[in-house]
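Researcher: Re-running this chain for the archive, since the previous output was lost when a drive failed. Same request as before.
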Amino acid sequence: KSRQAALFGSMHLLRGLLFAGTIPFIVIVAVFLNFAPAELASFVLCVLTLSAVDRILLDPARAALLAFEKLHWDVLVAGAGFAFKLLALFVVIHFDWHLPGVFAGQLFAAILRAGIAVTLVRRFCTRIRLVPDIKLLKLLFWASLPLGLSMCVLAIRFPLGVILVKWFAGSEATSYFGLPTRVIGMAMLPTGAIITAAYPGLCRAAAKGRDVLRRGISTLFIYLLFWNLAIFMGLYFLAMPITILLFRKAYSPAGPILALLAISPVFKTFDLLYGMTFIAIKRTRTYLVITVAATLVNIGATLVLIPVLSYAGAALASIACDLTVVIVGSVVLAR
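Model: Regenerated structure tokens:
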């Protein structure tokens, strides 16, 4: 189990480094769109650096928890991350902190969550040591490359949408699209934790045959569907109160966008579940193709809809992207 944890941890670390490598690409895109230097620096720091911290520090520790099948601790880490990030967002909004304060608060929450995960691994699983094996790392790098590229594409998807909203509709519209998207991301954390915890079971089911895997996916999806339908109902009917509570009345135009995006957790459940399934059956290249296709749909729909519908068009493009994953992933898995 210690060796398996080391292999999983190394793969996640390499994926995280590949993920961090998307930052130069985003810089080039932002420069091409004539962003001011201060806006560009803030964008890169707040969007990609936070995600890179999670990928590099948190994911290897969570991989070790999964290798030792300490699933309850993994769920605890996910819940703590949700609470820390929500608290940080609540504090910076209500104290009217500017972008550096938002970044600092979210970075502190990310590091604290990673610290909890590492502490749990050291206490209940195994010692954490850095013993580089160049030959093994090369093998792991090539094995991690398709999944790492998938993560890079996923990392690009949301920031690129924000850039396009800002480019076509202005900074105010960017807030009305970006803030509800963050709420959806936090609402998806429990689902992500459950699917991640179920990953060892998916691997065992895949080893036993296609029928066993199909039954396992169906059972897991039914439970998650009911959970995310409840989230959909809550976000849809309470969108405006949630928006005002978290972001104050000044951002009330974001309420209808949150209601529009409330269906996203249902679609994103497919995305997460299909992603873990493709990883379990060692079809990461297929998952990369699906991710790239969905991202191209998102970019195309964003370019078409934003000039017509402003930030609401970006929300519709995001839903179209999620729906593409559902349709293409279902067809590929059925085969």
